[in-house]
Write a structure and sequence with these properties.
heterodimer, A: 1 helix, about 0% helix, B: about 80 residues, alpha+beta, 3-stranded antiparallel β-sheet, 2 helices
Chain lengths: ~250, ~80
């Protein structure tokens, strides 16, 4: 663990849109809802956890109306819950990231002022989980027909029993004639034999992002894999994958 | 007389392991070997019956329902692989 700064932000993805290049601020918060339990006759207040957690997500930066950039990502206010991924600690396998099961956008504000670049801000409520995970495939392009990050598999030191969730986000995709690309998270108890743990819906276009929940045992070793289905050439998929243990 | 190796049916979409037993042994000993130094990777898909799953992986794969022992029908009835002397 170490202190981190703005240069360490590895990715900022909403629904498959990579907003890192247009963002200058990011505020994420998780809140434990408390209820005051102070009875009559008490001199000092008391509180208890109400059993509900709440997440919020706010992003600000430059207005960019290019294809696939911030305005396209944020202007629709569609109400759809979109998967989000943020890394405060770099775009590196094994580093931590935060996964947001569903970002529901509540606000998009464009700011224009004299002598300055236009700005844009968005606010989101988190529907569902706000969870901590580990990066298994750093955001980057893969052009081989198939492959995996087994060479950098992440060792948790032990298995875990409470399932978890895999996060996948595809920010750019050129199929080059292939039908689609399949992304997986795979696990192993011994770093020798690997089995599928979570499989994303095959991706045919970017941007795309998905959270895949799994139950039961998650073995200690994890890696991510990709494979294009069909045939083609000149393919490229830019994606990030990670896993949050339950 | 050498007994046949136990056979298992793959119950998950895909399993992978190094085909080279020496690599498996080095991994089993705790050595960290990058993927590009693991040689040929054996892939088995759902429904496939295999007899070369690394022995050390069989326990957890069976426990987690990733593979199951395959039973063979013989003239004497149904028996599990390995039951025969």
């Amino acid at each position: 663990m170490a202190t981190r700064g703005s240069a360490d932000v590895g990715f900022l993805i909403i629904g498959g849109y990579d907003l890192l290049g247009d963002s200058t601020t990011l505020d994420t918060a998780i809140e434990q809802v408390l209820e005051e339990t102070t009875p009559l006759g008490a001199a000092w207040p008391t509180h208890a956890q109400a059993g509900l957690k709440r997440g919020t997500f706010a992003q600000g930066g430059f207005y960019n109306d290019a294809t696939g950039k911030s305005n396209e990502a944020l202007v629709s206010l569609s109400g759809t819950a979109r998967v989000g991924l943020v890394s405060h600690a770099g775009n590196t396998i094994g580093r931590n990231f935060q996964g947001f099961a569903g970002l529901v956008q509540s606000k998009y504000q464009r700011q224009v002022s004299l002598g300055a670049l236009h700005k844009g801000q968005s606010e989101h409520a988190v529907t569902g989980q706000f969870e901590e995970g580990v990066i298994l495939h750093a955001l980057g392009a893969e052009t081989a027909a198939s492959g995996n990050t087994d060479a950098s598999s992440v060792d948790n030191g032990a298995s875990s029993a409470n399932g978890g969730a895999a996060y996948f986000a595809v920010t750019d995709l050129t199929l080059g004639g292939y039908t689609n690309v399949a992304l997986k998270v795979r696990h192993s108890a011994d770093d020798v034999t690997y089995a599928d743990l979570a499989t994303a819906t095959v991706v045919t276009a970017a941007p795309a992002a998905e959270r895949v929940a799994v139950n039961g045992t998650v073995n200690r070793h994890l890696y991510a894999s990709w494979a294009y289905n069909g045939a083609g050439s000149g393919q490229s998929v830019t994606f990030v994958a990670g896993f949050c243990r339950g | 007389m050498t007994a046949d190796r136990a056979r298992y049916r793959v119950l998950t979409d895909e399993l992978n392991w190094p085909a080279d037993a020496a690599i498996v042994a080095r991994l089993r000993a705790g050595e960290s070997i990058p993927m590009d130094e693991r040689g040929e990777i054996r892939t088995a898909r759902r429904g496939e019956v295999v007899s070369d799953v690394p022995a050390g992986s069989v326990g957890w794969l069976v426990d987690q329902g990733r593979i199951e022992p395959v039973t063979a029908v013989t003239r004497k009835g149904v028996m599990r692989d390995g039951d025969a002397g």
